[in-house]
Amino acid sequence: MTTPSYPNPNTRPGMATAIAIMTLVSGIVNVIWGLVAAGSVLSSFVFACLVPFAILPTVLGVFEIVYAAKLLFTPPQPVKPSTTMAILEITTILFGNVFSMVVGILSLVFYNDPQVRDYFARLNGLVAPETAPETAAQPFVPDAAPDSAMDEPPASESRPRRRKAAGDPDPSE
Hints:
The protein is an all-alpha fold. The protein is built from six helices and no strands. α1 runs antiparallel to α2, α1 runs antiparallel to α4 and α3 packs antiparallel against α4. The longest helix has 30 residues.
């Protein structure tokens, strides 16, 4: 399967647009989710020490919004595929956020698409590796050697010397 060549380097494949929009919506959901979680934790004095953990989805949401904005700019800014952010989106299931988990899984799947890889390579000024046409492998045929050469060991080979043990007789005597 060959990847299509885009005449305009700013042409964005549909999956890259989907990643950007899903990440933006997930970021907004995470910000709201984190603020609600932090507010509910703060409302009970017993769990007030858990506020830093409740704020984590909010922090992830801010990073998601910034990343999605960079992808949605025209022309888009050079960014690399953020698999780390997709993995963090998946871990938001620990906070009960199923939507962000689904976005993380879809992002990881979309990042592995050849068109999306090519788009990010062009976006960052990297040349995407071109696939070489596959050629049929030529069978290896060894050179035929005369039979007499196979029977005799080469002159350079000699028997390895054995170390003399303490009780062995001296061969020179």
